[in-house]
Design a protein that fits this description.
With 354 residues, the chain is of the alpha+beta class. It has helices at residues 15-24, 27-34, 58-66, 124-142, 149-154, 157-166, 173-182, 192-217, 220-228, 233-243, 275-279, 307-317, 319-322, and strands at 40-42, 52-55, 70-72, 146-148, 249-254, 258-260, 263-265, 270-274, 328-329, 337-338, 344-345, 349-351. The protein has 13 helices and twelve strands.
Length: 354
């Protein structure tokens, strides 16, 4: 911290110039943040904007999420390329007076809606709907010789899970999926904060599911282990959120002067919590670049607006697909995650035994 009490100014370029490079591979920029002693100040762009603090170390992200003076901020249009119009994670603020605590596992602190607290051990009818959808989608693929799992599996299963959790009839799944992707009138009445969370959760789960499948299909030993022991899906999901987060960041704004490890943030300033960087922090996760579902240590802060709904989706909907005969990556195809707002593979070409 400088003598003036301000956090140290960074040499990191303006955010607008980073967007394209971060979309390709954010990990080198995560490493830059891990070398800093605390949050990093990035100046505003030439076209306007007041700059932002970047928080990328695991301990600092947990501290920021637990700070009651920092509230979620969706009004970040002055940061080109980094804000999702649907408010992927930035649409939920804390109610007045709520403090929240960093828990590591479970929900992002301070952002749980009690009216929709869907846990992974959901009521049997919700789990049953998701499991049946997994069997239907997998059955459609079973007689095929090839497929792209992103549009034919990953884009559908999360919408089914979300609809079941919200009590929407199954026949409205397509309307719900379109709303999650394109906006417009919601297919059922929802409070604004819950609507934002639901749309973000559906998108994040679809991208995380594609990342999870791409990872397993490039690791035959892990794929065989999950097929033989479906209970491993929970650990695979948690490691996917750490290693390949579908929602890599959360924008907060200080409603009052707050202190974070390393310095103070003035009222009105924004803090970009890089959940993806936190999951790659070597201080919290030894050898962070290694994907390892058997990893010991603290659970990462989940980079997902509704992590238990995502876990429910993969826990009950994924096993039927993994059981499809001959499932493997298409020859010569390698999954590649892209994106800044939401991140994951846009294609997942496979061959099948049909």
């Amino acid at each position: 911290m400088t003598a003036s009490g301000r956090l140290p100014r960074s040499h990191v370029p303006a955010l607008a110039s980073l967007a394209v490079r971060v979309a390709r591979d954010p990990v080198p920029y995560y490493r830059l943040l891990h070398r800093e002693p605390g949050p990093v100040r990035v100046p505003g762009t030439a076209g306007g904007g007041d700059g932002i603090w970047l928080v990328g170390r695991d301990a600092d992200v947990r501290a920021a999420l637990a700070e009651p003076g920092l509230v979620a901020d969706a009004a970040t249009g002055d940061v080109p390329g980094l804000v999702d119009g649907a408010g992927l994670l930035a649409g939920e603020g804390r109610p007045e007076g709520e403090t929240g605590r960093a828990t590591g596992a479970g929900h992002v602190p301070g952002r749980v809606l009690a009216s929709a607290d869907v846990r992974a051990d959901a009521p049997p009818h919700v789990a049953g709907v998701v499991a049946r959808a997994g069997h239907v989608l997998a059955g459609r693929l079973g007689s095929r010789a090839s497929a792209d799992l992103v549009p034919e599996f990953c884009d559908w299963l999360p919408a089914v899970a979300l609809g079941a959790a919200l009590g929407l009839p199954y026949r409205r799944t397509e309307a719900l999926r379109r709303w999650c992707r394109a906006g417009g009138p919601a297919p059922l009445p929802l409070p604004d904060a819950l609507a934002v969370r639901a749309r973000g959760a559906e998108r994040a789960t679809a991208y995380a599911l594609a990342s999870l499948l791409g990872t397993l299909l490039t690791r035959p030993a892990h794929l065989a282990a999950v097929r033989n022991e479906p209970a491993l899906i929970d650990a695979v999901w948690a490691e996917t959120l750490r290693h390949d987060p579908p929602a890599p960041y959360l924008v907060l704004r200080a409603r009052e002067r707050v202190r974070l490890p390393g310095g103070a943030v003035a009222a009105g300033e924004r803090v970009l919590c890089l959940l993806g960087a936190a999951g790659r922090d070597p201080a919290g996760y030894p050898d962070p670049g290694r994907w390892d579902p058997y990893r010991a240590g603290p659970a990462p802060v989940p980079a997902h607006p509704w992590p238990d709904l995502g876990l429910l989706t993969v826990r009950y909907g994924l096993p039927p697909l993994l059981g499809v005969r001959g499932l493997a990556l298409a020859p010569g195809f390698a999954p590649r995650a892209v994106g800044v707002r939401v991140r994951g593979p846009r294609r997942l070409l496979v061959r099948l035994g049909g």
